[in-house]
C-alpha cells in the first residue's frame, strides 16, 4: 500500500517492536478489529476486541489518550481502524505491520495461523 495511512511516518509498528514495548508492562493498548470467529482462532493477549464494523459506535471503549496499536489478520483492516481512530481524535495510533500473521511468524510460532 503506497501513500495514505500506511505511508505516514509512524503509522505502522513491527511485531518485534511491539513485543519489546509490551515487555515493559506499560506498552500500547491493542485494538483487535477482526471478526469474532477469527478471534477464536488466535488472539493477542490484552487486546480489546471490537470488530472493525462496530468501531465507530464503540469508540468510548478505548482510551483516547493512550497509545493504541490496531491489529487484524494481515494488517489491512488495522490500517482502516487506525484511520477511524485518528479521525475521531485519538492521538497516537499505529497498525501492526503484517497483522497477527506476522506476530505468529516473528514472535509466537506456537500461535495458530489461518
Backbone structural class: alpha/beta
Residue runs with pLDDT of under 50 for 5 or more positions? none
Overall morphology: globular
How much is the radius of gyration in Å? 13 Å
Number of DSSP-assigned strands:
5
Largest sheet: 5 strands, parallel
Helix content: 25-40%
The number of helical elements comes to 5
Strand order of the largest sheet: 1-5-4-2-3
Strand content: 5-15%
Task: Kindly report how far apart the N and C termini lie.
Answer: 22 Å
Order of helices and strands: HEHEHEEHEH
Mean pLDDT figure: 92
Question: Could you give a quick summary of the protein structure above?
Answer:
The protein is of the alpha/beta class and 114 residues long. The chain is built from five helices and five strands; from the N terminus they run αβαβαββαβα.
What descriptive keywords fit this protein?
about 110 residues, alpha/beta, 5-stranded parallel beta sheet, 5 helices, 5 strands, about 35% helix, about 15% strand
Amino acid at each position: 500500500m503506497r501513500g495514505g495511512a500506511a505511508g505516514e511516518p509512524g503509522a505502522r509498528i513491527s511485531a518485534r517492536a511491539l513485543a519489546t514495548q509490551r515487555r515493559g508492562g506499560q506498552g500500547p493498548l491493542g485494538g483487535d478489529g477482526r471478526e469474532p470467529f477469527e478471534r477464536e482462532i488466535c488472539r493477542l493477549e490484552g487486546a480489546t476486541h471490537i470488530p472493525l464494523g462496530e468501531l465507530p459506535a464503540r469508540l468510548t471503549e478505548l482510551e483516547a489518550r493512550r497509545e493504541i496499536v490496531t491489529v487484524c489478520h494481515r494488517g489491512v483492516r488495522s490500517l482502516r481502524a487506525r484511520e477511524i481512530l485518528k479521525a475521531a481524535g485519538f492521538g497516537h495510533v499505529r497498525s501492526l505491520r503484517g497483522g497477527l500473521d506476522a506476530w505468529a511468524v516473528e514472535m509466537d510460532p506456537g500461535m495458530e495461523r489461518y
